[in-house]
What does this fold into?
Amino acid sequence: MSIDMTKPLPETQPWTQAFWDGTREGKLLVQVCRQCQARIFAPRKRCPQCWSSDLGWIESAGRGTVYTFSTAYSGVEPKFTDELPYTIAYVDLAEGIRLMTRIVGCDPAELAIGMEVEVVFHDRDGFRLPYFRPAQNGNADE
Ligand SMILES: [Zn+2]
It folds into this structure.
Protein backbone atom coordinates (compact mmCIF):
# COMPACT_ATOMS: atom_id res chain seq x y z
CA MET A 1 0.00 0.00 0.00
CA SER A 2 1.39 3.36 -0.94
CA ILE A 3 1.02 6.47 1.13
CA ASP A 4 -0.56 9.50 -0.49
CA MET A 5 2.06 12.24 -0.10
CA THR A 6 0.02 14.84 -1.96
CA LYS A 7 -0.63 17.88 0.18
CA PRO A 8 -4.17 19.17 0.10
CA LEU A 9 -5.09 22.32 -1.80
CA PRO A 10 -7.96 24.74 -1.30
CA GLU A 11 -11.22 23.77 -2.96
CA THR A 12 -12.39 26.93 -4.61
CA GLN A 13 -16.03 27.89 -4.89
CA PRO A 14 -17.54 30.70 -6.96
CA TRP A 15 -17.70 32.86 -3.80
CA THR A 16 -14.06 32.16 -2.83
CA GLN A 17 -12.54 32.56 -6.30
CA ALA A 18 -11.80 36.28 -5.83
CA PHE A 19 -9.95 35.51 -2.60
CA TRP A 20 -7.65 33.00 -4.30
CA ASP A 21 -7.22 35.21 -7.38
CA GLY A 22 -6.15 37.94 -4.94
CA THR A 23 -3.51 35.82 -3.26
CA ARG A 24 -2.08 34.95 -6.67
CA GLU A 25 -1.52 38.70 -7.10
CA GLY A 26 0.02 38.98 -3.65
CA LYS A 27 -3.10 40.54 -2.15
CA LEU A 28 -4.97 39.38 0.93
CA LEU A 29 -8.61 40.26 0.31
CA VAL A 30 -11.30 40.60 2.95
CA GLN A 31 -14.93 40.16 1.99
CA VAL A 32 -17.16 43.06 3.04
CA CYS A 33 -20.94 43.41 3.10
CA ARG A 34 -21.98 46.52 1.16
CA GLN A 35 -25.23 46.73 3.14
CA CYS A 36 -24.07 46.50 6.77
CA GLN A 37 -20.27 46.82 6.33
CA ALA A 38 -19.63 43.51 8.12
CA ARG A 39 -16.21 42.00 7.44
CA ILE A 40 -16.61 38.34 6.52
CA PHE A 41 -14.30 35.34 6.72
CA ALA A 42 -14.34 32.76 5.29
CA PRO A 43 -15.89 34.18 2.11
CA ARG A 44 -19.57 33.38 1.70
CA LYS A 45 -22.46 33.84 -0.67
CA ARG A 46 -24.41 35.92 1.84
CA CYS A 47 -23.57 38.18 4.74
CA PRO A 48 -23.87 36.23 8.01
CA GLN A 49 -25.06 39.42 9.75
CA CYS A 50 -27.83 40.71 7.48
CA TRP A 51 -28.15 37.98 4.79
CA SER A 52 -27.46 40.43 1.98
CA SER A 53 -25.82 39.01 -1.13
CA ASP A 54 -24.39 42.45 -1.97
CA LEU A 55 -20.80 41.63 -1.07
CA GLY A 56 -17.51 43.13 -2.13
CA TRP A 57 -13.81 43.06 -1.26
CA ILE A 58 -11.21 45.25 0.35
CA GLU A 59 -7.48 44.64 0.35
CA SER A 60 -5.97 43.89 3.73
CA ALA A 61 -2.69 45.52 4.72
CA GLY A 62 -1.68 41.97 5.64
CA ARG A 63 -0.95 42.70 9.27
CA GLY A 64 -2.50 41.28 12.39
CA THR A 65 -1.93 39.70 15.76
CA VAL A 66 -1.81 36.10 16.91
CA TYR A 67 -5.08 35.22 18.68
CA THR A 68 -3.97 31.69 19.53
CA PHE A 69 -1.78 28.97 18.08
CA SER A 70 -0.77 25.33 18.34
CA THR A 71 2.45 23.71 17.20
CA ALA A 72 2.84 20.10 16.13
CA TYR A 73 6.33 18.66 16.64
CA SER A 74 5.37 15.12 15.59
CA GLY A 75 2.36 12.97 14.89
CA VAL A 76 1.30 14.62 11.65
CA GLU A 77 0.43 12.84 8.44
CA PRO A 78 3.56 11.62 6.59
CA LYS A 79 2.99 14.21 3.86
CA PHE A 80 3.69 16.97 6.41
CA THR A 81 6.70 15.57 8.28
CA ASP A 82 9.05 17.61 6.08
CA GLU A 83 7.42 20.79 7.45
CA LEU A 84 7.71 20.04 11.19
CA PRO A 85 7.45 21.86 13.51
CA TYR A 86 4.13 22.95 12.07
CA THR A 87 2.27 25.85 13.68
CA ILE A 88 -1.40 26.53 13.09
CA ALA A 89 -2.76 29.83 14.36
CA TYR A 90 -5.76 32.08 14.41
CA VAL A 91 -4.70 35.57 13.36
CA ASP A 92 -6.80 38.68 13.93
CA LEU A 93 -6.33 41.00 10.97
CA ALA A 94 -6.39 44.75 11.46
CA GLU A 95 -9.39 44.76 9.07
CA GLY A 96 -11.50 42.90 11.61
CA ILE A 97 -11.53 39.27 10.59
CA ARG A 98 -10.00 36.22 12.26
CA LEU A 99 -8.54 33.59 9.98
CA MET A 100 -6.93 30.22 10.51
CA THR A 101 -3.49 30.14 8.99
CA ARG A 102 0.05 28.93 9.48
CA ILE A 103 2.92 30.71 11.17
CA VAL A 104 6.28 30.35 9.42
CA GLY A 105 9.70 31.92 9.71
CA CYS A 106 9.67 31.72 13.47
CA ASP A 107 10.95 29.38 16.16
CA PRO A 108 7.69 28.21 17.78
CA ALA A 109 9.28 28.83 21.19
CA GLU A 110 9.47 32.53 20.26
CA LEU A 111 5.82 32.72 19.23
CA ALA A 112 3.35 34.38 21.58
CA ILE A 113 -0.31 35.29 21.73
CA GLY A 114 -0.65 38.92 20.75
CA MET A 115 2.50 38.88 18.60
CA GLU A 116 2.31 41.12 15.55
CA VAL A 117 2.47 39.15 12.33
CA GLU A 118 2.35 39.86 8.62
CA VAL A 119 1.22 37.86 5.65
CA VAL A 120 3.70 35.99 3.49
CA PHE A 121 2.54 33.98 0.50
CA HIS A 122 3.66 30.41 -0.15
CA ASP A 123 3.27 28.90 -3.59
CA ARG A 124 1.82 25.42 -3.84
CA ASP A 125 0.61 23.85 -7.06
CA GLY A 126 -0.90 26.97 -8.59
CA PHE A 127 -2.17 28.43 -5.33
CA ARG A 128 -0.56 31.09 -3.18
CA LEU A 129 -1.39 30.25 0.41
CA PRO A 130 -1.51 33.14 2.90
CA TYR A 131 0.73 32.24 5.84
CA PHE A 132 2.01 34.65 8.47
CA ARG A 133 5.40 35.41 9.99
CA PRO A 134 6.49 37.75 12.78
CA ALA A 135 6.09 41.32 11.58
CA GLN A 136 9.27 42.93 10.34
CA ASN A 137 9.21 46.42 11.77
CA GLY A 138 10.03 49.24 9.43
CA ASN A 139 10.69 48.31 5.84
CA ALA A 140 8.60 45.27 4.97
CA ASP A 141 10.99 44.31 2.19
CA GLU A 142 13.76 41.95 3.20
ZN1 LIG B 1 -24.46 42.54 5.98
Remarks:
- The chain has two domains: 14-59, 61-136.
- The mean pLDDT is 94.
- The longest strand covers residues 63-72.
